[in-house]
Structures are given as C-alpha cells and as structure tokens.
Amino acid sequence: MLARLLSLPIKATEHFGTVLGALAGAWAAVWLVAPWLARRRVPVGLASALVLMWGVGGVSGFNAYGVGFMDQARVAIMAFLIGSVLLLSSTVLAAISYRRWFPPERFLAWSLLWTFGMTMLLATIGPSP
C-alpha cells in the first residue's frame, strides 16, 4: 500500500518490503534481549544491539536474496544498515532527552522527534547524486 502511495516501481517495492521486514524482525530481537542489554555498559550494550540487528538483517537478506543474488541487494543492504543505526540512535537520544520516569507517550514523542531529526541529518550528510 505504501509503495502504491509513493508510486514506487515493482522492483523497488520488493526491496522496500524486504528492508522493512528485516528492520522489524531485528528491532523485535533487540527488544527481546533488552533486559540483558540494559545490564551492560552503554557502549557495550549499543554495540551488542547493533551486532544483533545486523545479524538478524543478514539472515533475513540471505533468506530473501540467496547467495546468487546478493549483488542485486546492495541498495537493500545499505538501507537496512542505515535504518538500524537510525533506530538505535534515535532510541538512545530519546532516552537521554528525558531521563526521569515518563509515560510511554512522551518517550514515543521524543523517539519520533529524534527519528525525524536523525533522518534529516543522514540525508544531509549522505552522498550527493
């Protein structure tokens, strides 16, 4: 539905769906091990979460593309890598922005704000066409 709304071609739609599915699975895996990650030092926890996300994304990409077609998946792989860094960084920045106890709505608002901000930052420092 989103692909139709954005008028994406069929090939891009397949990659887009694969990336979104892989990000959702990787993010779910991070939330499942979040109690374990929370007991670690912050840099170790972030690195562990990133490695876990990239591992789940790698399995998802291998499942979607197979060995023979991994060269066609470069854009999807880069989108997944950028998306995983974006998710982790915006969540950490949202947690830092409001350190006291907070209702979930406020955390989600901070998370949305930081996700938008990090997306804009990545878009401005990214490679120019």
What does this protein structure show overall?
With 129 residues, the protein is mainly alpha-helical. Helix content is 80%, strand content 0%. The protein has six helices and no strands. Helix 5 packs across helix 6. The radius of gyration is 16 Å and the shape is globular. It starts with a helix and ends with a helix.
The level of helicity is over 70%
Average per-residue pLDDT, rounded, comes to 78
Number of β-strand runs: 0
Radius of gyration, in angstroms, nearest whole number: 16 Å
| End-to-end gap | 27 Å
H-E string: HHHHHH
The biggest beta sheet reads: none
Taking pLDDT < 50 over at least 5 consecutive residues as the criterion, the unreliable ranges are none
Shape: globular
Share of residues in strands? under 5%
Count helical runs.
6
Class from secondary-structure proportions = mainly alpha
Summarize the structure.
By secondary structure, the chain is an all-alpha fold. Helices cover 80% and strands 0% of the residues. It is built from six helices and no strands.
Chart the SSEs and their pairings:
Elements: H1 2-6, H2 10-32, H3 34-38, H4 42-65, H5 74-97, H6 104-125
Helix pairs in contact: 2-4, 2-5, 4-5, 5-6
